[in-house]
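Need tokens for this chain, all 478 residues.
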Amino acid sequence: MTNISGVIKSIRDIMWQDTGLNGDAQRIEQLGWMLFLKIFSDKDKELEMMDDNYTSPITDEFHWINEKGNWAGDDEGMTGDELLAFVDQKLFPALRNLDLSVGNGRALIVREVFMGNNNYMKSGINIRKVLNKLNELNFNIAKERHSFGELYEGILKDLQSAGKSGEYYTPRAITNFITDMIDPKLGEKILDPSCGTGGYLTSAIEHLKAQANSVEERQSIQDNIMGWEYKPLPYLLATTNLILHDIELPKIIFRDSLDQPLSNYKERDRVDVILANPPFGGIVANNNEKNFPQNFRTKESADLFLILMIHLLKNGGRAGIVLPDGSLTGEGVKQRVREKLLTECNLHTIIRLPNSVFQPYATVATNLLFFEKGKSTKEIWYYEHKLPEGQKAYNKTRPIRLEEFDPIKDWWNNREENDVAWKVDIHTIIDRGYDLDIKNPTKQEEEHEYTSSELIEMLENSMGKSNDLLNQLKSGIK
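Here are the structure tokens for all 478 residues:
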């Protein structure tokens, strides 16, 4: 079997040498479209062998392996300036302009991927080297595809430290835990309206695979897993992610989830399960807040996503989502959003997470909310998830792990109040103005003893902010 991790390491080493690539996000995007095309082409060849009537949406010239020069699949194929020109002037234009008139879903996926992503590499020789390394992988071998799927998760995880792109990745321990607790069933329609790189969708796919005992049941997974994403890079990565998890035609729509009035969604559009980490801290674009009723209009994306998700759930539908502390409190629109949630849904559980789960992309405190539509909330159980013993924060080398949620899973069906779990009745919450930011009543205020290195880091951050402020003042005086 191919040494897959060795292949990826070699590709990264080649990409580091190319002057066109700057930063992890660009390297991941570059690898992303090349991987996608390799995986897509391998699958096309398999479909052609299995179905005499199958026609690929990609013409032979642009397939990974073809009879017109083998731009990619032949290790001795074109290279240097010829290859660079082919990729920039022929490949990308052709795939961005695929004919969609015949309603070929696979053609739409290819076009969306190449419309939104780019070739950043400037050396045709380096492109040739990367293509040759990818030729060592065969995605039609199930074992190899699945092994690569595990490694692909590591590639996606690198986004967490890739600046702004970190918002697209949710730690897999979180997606798996939420999926386990919501427990989607075969035949249920499952949606992530802000799917990022597809973490919740792949968690749901694996959860459902364990229930499937026939070809028909496996097909139902393909038919009922849906995602929406409006940024090109995560759309590309999510689509590839689902293909690696045996979804032949991923139902991921390239769109802004807030771009339609709520009234456009009919009963047929509603779903049984929503799993999501909606964007928070962002400002809604294109006046999309006007798609919502007047009393819920806000520029805060997380609040609008919460209204949207409540609307999209069927009666009896279930949701498990991530929200920041800022969505649990506040007056005005925020209060009305929470009132709607508690009136139309049974918000039965809030898991309070340490504020370092999403570091370094975000350091705000976050919460996992679990609710069911159709019944109003009577009481809410809170559970404070604590850091492992001796660990002061999560970070890249010590991220949150799925096994840390085992105590919560044990508690879930046999709930009792203890030093990390407490419940609050709805009357108390109403008296608080629907404020859900309720701290652990058994927790004493702790004095934090900082190490010397922590104090130095805090001082550096403080001085940096002061310098930024001074520079802004100087700019204003000039």
